[in-house]
Amino acid sequence: MALDPAALPDAELAFLDERHLATLTTLRPDGTPHVVAVGFTWDDEAGLVRVITNGTSRKVANVRAGSPRAVVAQVDGRRWMSLEGVPTVTDDPERVAEAVRRYALRYRQPSENPNRVVVEIRVDRVLGKG
Questions:
Q1: What is the mean pLDDT of residues 28-42?
Q2: Rounded distance, CA 52 to CA 34, Å?
Q3: Contact 72, 23 (CB under 8 A)
Q4: For residue range 57-112, what is the model confidence (pLDDT) as tens digits?
Q5: How far, in Å, CA of 69 to CA of 125, rounded?
Q6: What is the largest CA-CA distance in the chain?
Q7: Structural domains in the chain?
Q8: Buried b / exposed e across 57-88, counting CB within 10 Å, b at 16+?
Q9: What whole-number distance in Å separates Cα of residue 107 and Cα of residue 15?
Q10: What is the mean pLDDT of residues 2-7?
């Protein structure tokens, strides 16, 4: 079922706050999908998915090479949501710190990583079944 990313129902917001891993799909330069397991956070006010990662990762390389879309998909039994949009990569210290803060609240405090960046997805399409 398609959902409005700017007005997600309370049940879906609660699902996005629960501690679950997800998959992140980006596109390689040859157009093939690259899918990896990730932790992520959802910022409802900004309409952003954030994934903290190492700056040398394949997902970052894909986004920097122009992956036009990215999708984070979370599944728990029959419940699922996919959050899709345009990805960017940032190493801005304030944005990285905010992503780390949110990650620590949802999962755990990540270890230090001087090469940490954030893949941000400006979500414009949400599908799900809750």
A1: 97
A2: 17
A3: yes
A4: 999 999 999 999 999 999 999 999 999 999 999 999 999 999 999 999 999 999 99
A5: 11
A6: 40
A7: 2-129 (2.30.110.10)
A8: bebbbbbeeebeebbbbbeeeeeebbbbbebe
A9: 14
A10: 92
Task: Tell me which amino acid residue 12 is.
Answer: E
Helix (H) or strand (E) holding 112: none
Distance of CA 38 to the CA centre of its chain: 8
**Assigned token pair, 49:** 């998915």
End-to-end CA distance of the chain: 9
The amino acid occupying position 62 is N
| Reported pTM | 0.95
Distance separating alpha carbons of residues 42 and 50, to the nearest angstrom: 7
Closest residue by Cα to residue 101 from 50, 59, 57, 38: 50
Residue matched to tokens 């394949």: 58
> Which pLDDT score, from 0 to 100, does residue 1 have?
82
SS (H, E, C) 14-28: HHHHCCCCEEEEEEC
Amino acid code (one letter) for 88? T
Would you state the structure tokens that stand for residue 94, as one six-digit string? 């304030």
